[in-house]
Amino acid sequence: MKADEFSQFPTQTLDFLTDLSANNDRDWFAQNKPVYESALKVPAEDFCRAMTARLEDLTGLPHRPKIFRIHRDIRFSRDKTPYNAHLHISFMPEMDGTLRPGWYFGLEPGRLTAGTGVFEFAKSDLDAFRARLAGEDGARLAKLVESFSGEIRLADPELKRVPQPYPADHPRADLLRRKSLSGWVDFASPREACESGFADGCFDAFCRLKPLFDWLAAPSR
């Protein structure tokens, strides 16, 4: 499928996820596996191909898409439901650099999101991130975050206090309390994924997120 041939997910995609959420067991899934294939697996693959091409054009970088497994890893979880009642996809650019952000898509019965960022910095990357925050790059990021004005949601900081050796009253304290950095565009309704032209709307969300992607992808200065 070409990039301009995917318009939206079929209504059956969200219907299947809603039904799976209410019937999360192996017998139900086995009986409905043909629906899973046609309503979720194939449309997700088509979406991946189309959006990968668009993101490569947007960034000038090759990308590796990944559709996350519908089967849950329940070995160490108290929740023994066997399936994920959501569709999560990542698009990871092939690039050099320290922080290496990715693009993310999520569809579930109660939420539809598009995002970019880094979910968890490695120790050396976290040190580099904090060092950037202390300089001109940090001032640029703070100004960028301020410009989001509620249209882009940042994930909450993980730390309650500013880490040493930075002062508690540092002007970028909120950013320094983070061990990851991701921004998200939340759509008004998950049903938007099944409306004509959704692919364009999702790509528009990624375009709005690109300044954050660019900051994370830029080399330290």
Overview of the structural elements:
The chain is an alpha+beta fold. The chain has one domain (11-217): 2-Layer Sandwich (BirA Bifunctional Protein, domain 2), CATH 3.30.930. The chain contains seven helices and six strands, in the order αααββββααβαβα. The protein has helices at residues 11-22, 26-31, 33-59, 123-133, 136-147, 173-176, 198-217, and strands at 63-67, 87-93, 102-108, 111-118, 153-154, 181-186. It has a six-stranded antiparallel β-sheet with strand order 1-2-3-4-6-5. A hairpin with a 2-residue loop joins β3 (102-108) and β4 (111-118). α1 (11-22) packs across α3 (33-59). It is globular, with a radius of gyration of 19 Å. It starts with 10 loop residues before the first helix and ends with a helix.
